[in-house]
Design a protein that fits this description.
about 140 residues, about 20% helix, alpha+beta, elongated, five-stranded antiparallel sheet
Length: about 140
C-alpha cells in the first residue's frame, strides 16, 4: 500500500460578492487525487474576508438565499463597526469569514471527492471587490 501526499496552490479569479461554486476548479487543479483510494482533501483559503462551505450545487436560488440571509444577519450598515479602512464591507466580511471558516476537509474515495450528489464547494465572497483569492489544496491518502 502506497501513501500519497500532494499540495497545490489554486488562484481563483475575482468574483463579485456572493456564493460561487468552485468544485470543478478544485478538481481540475489537483488531478493527483485520482491516485488516492482512501484519503482526504483539505482546502484552505488564505484570506480573512471570504469563506468556504459545502452546500446545494444544483439550484442557484440557494446561493441567493444564503447571500440575502447572511447580509441581513451581518449588515454592512452596522453603525458600531470601527474597522472600515477598506470600506463599509470590510469588517462585515471579516465576521462572515469567521462564521463560515476558511478550510474544508473532504473525503476522497476511489480517486474522487466523496461529496454528496447535491453538494458543491462554495467560495463565499463577502467583499464587493475582493480580488483574486488563493487556496492551498492538500491531498493525502493511500492506494
Amino acid at each position: 500500500m502506497s501513501q500519497f501526499f500532494f499540495q497545490k496552490p489554486l488562484r481563483l479569479p475575482s468574483y463579485p460578492q456572493g456564493y460561487h461554486l468552485i468544485t470543478d476548479q478544485i478538481e481540475k487543479a489537483i488531478p493527483d487525487i485520482r491516485q488516492i483510494r482512501i484519503g482526504f482533501l483539505q482546502v484552505f483559503l488564505q484570506h480573512t474576508s471570504a469563506g468556504l462551505c459545502i452546500n446545494e450545487n444544483a439550484d442557484p436560488t440557494v446561493r441567493r438565499d444564503f447571500q440575502t440571509f447572511v447580509n441581513e444577519l451581518i449588515p454592512e450598515s452596522f453603525p458600531r463597526f470601527v474597522h472600515n479602512y477598506e470600506g463599509d464591507d470590510d469588517m462585515p466580511a471579516h465576521i462572515k469569514s469567521a462564521f463560515f471558516g476558511v478550510n474544508l476537509q473532504i473525503p476522497i474515495s476511489t480517486g474522487k471527492l466523496a461529496l454528496g450528489i447535491w453538494q458543491g464547494i462554495y467560495l463565499c465572497e463577502f467583499r464587493h471587490h475582493g480580488g483574486n483569492r488563493s487556496l492551498v489544496l492538500t491531498a493525502f491518502g493511500t492506494d
